[in-house]
Design brief:
- The protein is built from 11 helices and 12 strands.
- By secondary structure, the chain is α/β, with parallel strands linked by helices.
- The chain has a single domain, classed as TIM Barrel.
- The strands form 3 sheets. The protein has a 7-stranded mixed sheet. A 3-stranded mixed sheet has the order 3-7-6.
- Helix 8 runs parallel beside helix 11.
- The longest helix has 17 residues.
- The radius of gyration is 21 Å and the shape is globular.
């Protein structure tokens, strides 16, 4: 049974309520019947439970993605980004995509060992692994668990290429590892830039690094020789789309060599979560934002079709693409120029328990 609570903005959290888990057999709703009821706490602690990893790699055949395999050390994400397309996945663990997604996390134990086993399989073909395919591998939990760092160490050991996307300054902890991988053309990093407005960031992405900190990440990684790109995602109509050129200027100044953008996606429970967040924090803009989103999504809040879900369609989207292309050409930012990764140097890691190596 799932309890549905009234909307409530909480400091440091993105979701304003827990939507019904679509896989749950029943739902119960809190109703004011005149009797006293305990209010939901304004501050909610983060809970973490361990889950032994059965395998390391997740595989996909999506034509929208530039990789066919990914690795996610954690389920759920304390960053609390209200728009996160990964929120609906929390329902598979009988948890809500709302507050649960950012307060009830799952750490996958034994993940590095399972990855070692995968890379040792006789038929394994080396292609880049994407970290943070679902949730940020440098979210706050990584500071205690160090799973992402151990993954990097293994990939460097066996000369395996990888890509990652993050909006966390914690990545600078591993700059030496990333620099060593970059020397062998084994890594490229994308920093997610959503806004340069600190006030918008605080509600949209409450526990992520500040805009200034993300630009610092780009500068320091670039200075260390790590290829860095900027991912303007999501672009939200009437909320942050006016910042596109400023974001690209700032990213270029910070050392970005490539850039890409994506339109806001609202799959499954993300749609009601985002609409409630809009009504709570930007009530005067809510109708305009959702109108432009629907104009770009064939009249719906979300369009899941391949080839459309990340970009959308229509006059507004065409205008965004033209602006992006014009600014990128002015700044010399490519999509993937000069960032090819080396797959030919891969050597399977030693198996655990090997006597000789």
């Amino acid at each position: 049974m799932t309890m549905k609570h009234p909307s409530q903005a909480r400091k440091g959290r993105g979701a304003t309520f827990d939507p019904h888990n679509r896989f749950a057999p029943s739902v119960s709703e809190a109703v004011d019947d005149g009797w006293w009821q305990e209010a939901s706490p304004e501050h909610m602690a983060t809970e973490v439970r361990d889950e032994p990893a059965k395998s390391a790699l997740s595989w996909n055949h999506s034509p929208d993605l530039g990789f066919d395999r990914s690795l996610n050390p954690y389920r759920g994400c304390e960053h609390g980004c209200i728009y996160c397309f990964a929120r609906p996945s929390h329902a598979y663990w009988d948890l809500s995509p709302g507050i649960d997604f950012e307060t009830r996390l799952i750490a996958r134990t034994g993940l590095v060992e399972r990855l070692r086993e995968d890379l040792c399989k006789p038929g394994y073909v080396c292609r880049p692994i994407n970290l943070s395919g679902n949730t940020d591998c440098y979210q706050p939990l990584e500071a205690q668990r160090h799973t992402t760092r151990r993954v990097l160490e293994l990939l460097l050991e066996c000369r395996h290429p990888m890509t990652l996307v993050t909006k966390s300054a914690l990545i600078l902890r591993d700059r030496e590892l990333l620099a060593a991988m970059a020397e062998r053309r084994l890594v490229r990093v994308f920093v997610s830039l959503t806004s340069l407005d600190d006030d918008l960031k605080r509600t949209l992405e409450p526990r992520t690094a500040s805009p200034a900190a993300r630009l610092k990440v780009m500068r320091e990684l670039s200075a260390a020789g790590v290829p860095v790109g900027a991912l303007l995602s999501p672009i939200i109509p009437a909320l942050n789309d006016h910042e596109m050129e400023r974001l690209l200027d700032a990213a270029s100044d910070a050392g970005a060599r490539t850039a890409a953008w994506m339109l806001l996606r609202l799959p499954h429970e993300v749609a009601p979560l985002f609409e409630d967040w809009l009504a709570t924090h930007y009530p005067q803009r809510a109708a305009k934002v959702m109108s432009l989103i629907r104009q770009s999504r064939g009249g719906r809040a979300n369009d899941p079709r391949f080839g459309h879900r990340q970009r959308g369609e229509g006059v507004f989207v065409d205008m965004l693409e033209q602006r992006f292309q014009r600014a990128s050409r002015r700044l010399g930012l490519g999509r993937r120029a000069g960032m090819g990764l080396e797959c030919g140097d891969f050597r399977p890691p030693h198996r655990q328990g090997d006597l000789f190596g």
